[in-house]
Amino acid sequence: MPYLDVNFLLILVSSHRTKLEEDIMFKALMVMSERFPIGVATTYKPDSMFSVLRRSLINSISKLLFMFFSLKNNIIIFTIFISLILIGCEATQVQTKTSTLKTIQTSENISKKNKTEIKKTIEESTPEPAQEPITDIINETIKIGIMLPLTGKHYQIGNSLLNASQLALNKTQNKNIKFFVRDTGNGDDITKNFYSLLNKDVDIILGPIFSKNILKIQPLSKDENIQIITFSNNTKVTQNNLYIFGLTLEDEVQSILEHSTKSENKKLAAILPDNDYGKRIKNEIKKFHNNNPSQLVKIVMYNPSDPDFYKISKNISEYEQRKINLGLKIKELEALNTTSSKKEIKRLKNLDTFGDLPFDSLFIGVESFKQLSMISSILPYYDVDPKKIQYLGNSVWNKDSIIKEPGLNNSLFTSLDRESTATFRQEYLEIFNQKPHPIASLAYDAVGMVISLSENKKPINVSSLTTKQGFRGINGTFKFYLNGNIERNPSIYRVKNEKLYKVSN
């Protein structure tokens, strides 16, 4: 995952401050040089008229003295002249003292003025910081709102996601991440939880899980301009600031079909629940086979609230029709009345149906692993044998117990990368004394992403979340789009002899 190095940012900020200090010093010296040229300790003062007259008088007296000494005149006259010189010097000294006092006072005033003007110049030349000091950013608290079902029938999923979030937080040295958790399973209006988190000034919201809750806050989140990462995989709930984080059905279906059709499995049938979940899978299957409609043999939709898997299995295998075909075939052979026909009739009478299935791969769309276990044990009794038919599935199948299901041997299914999450699942087990829910790793990656953005001094907004480089977590790489959708590359696993094998990424 491409992130800016913290040391790199420190260098940038330090250089910015150094440049600023250089600019300030230069401007300060400019102010000083206007009054005190560099290298000159005092100011230059031109001679006054009094100084010129004083020097002329001294020169005249000096000449007279020279004349007197030269002519060796009497001492009295010399004394008189000396007295006059001393009187003149005294007067000059008094005048000089007075002038010096004024000069000092003036210099003090200039000095005070300089200090004021220099300070003002520095203040005016100092721009507003482009960003806060690095220490302030590091110490800034990042508030993460979390909306999960911690009570009610889905409490196990919600608590597993919350535990994974805390595990991710404990992995970082950043102690300035704070969670604000709201329970969506207690019957409270989801909008109440939403506004409760906004009142806490959260930077981002993680959750909810289910589409019905997401759709309620969807218009509210747009108005409030808050970024929301949901744990849903439903592409219908997305928008500019509301993202799905789960592995989408669309990505799963396309990946598994692409892999399957590369082999000898060219003809597809599907068993799907008659609800939005099943219809989304159906649409992707039809989209995939749009150019080859002959490859899509049959799709059976069933009632998800009361599934009759016996009836479903008979339907998908065309059991009744093939049973009729068996009777017709026996009658045809009986009419021949040959030794070979009699032998074939004997064999056929041990069968329930006649003829091969019209498909060689079967996508089994269920909403729970329990449903998968039930239907996989029934299908072989209606000639949908996993030894002959390639079973296909999605991440609902991603349970460790799948290897213990004999009816699913040789099946293929999509999932987030299990190998990359192995360490996470082991740590979770050790800390919480239970296995994490299959989607718990999503919460781990979501919190890790927020922590990384904050540590790399990036704001949590549309621009930072929809970066072209994307992100890398324990579930592999992922990238958000402006419309709220997510791009992931699901892995494909094969169940074989009570083991899982990764066959594609």
Describe the protein's architecture and organization:
The protein is built from 16 helices and 15 strands. With 505 residues, the chain is α/β, with parallel strands linked by helices. The protein has three domains: 6-125, no CATH class; 140-246 and 421-488, Response regulator (Rossmann fold), CATH 3.40.50.2300; 249-419 and 489-504, Response regulator (Rossmann fold). It has a seven-stranded mixed sheet with strand order 7-6-8-9-10-14-15, with helices on both faces. Strands 2-1-3-4-5 form a five-stranded parallel sheet, sandwiched between helices. The protein has a three-stranded antiparallel sheet with strand order 11-12-13, with helices on one face. The longest helix is centred in the first third of the chain and has 51 residues, at 75-125. The chain is elongated, with a radius of gyration of 45 Å. The two termini are 18 Å apart. Residues 1-56 and 68-138 have low confidence and may be disordered.
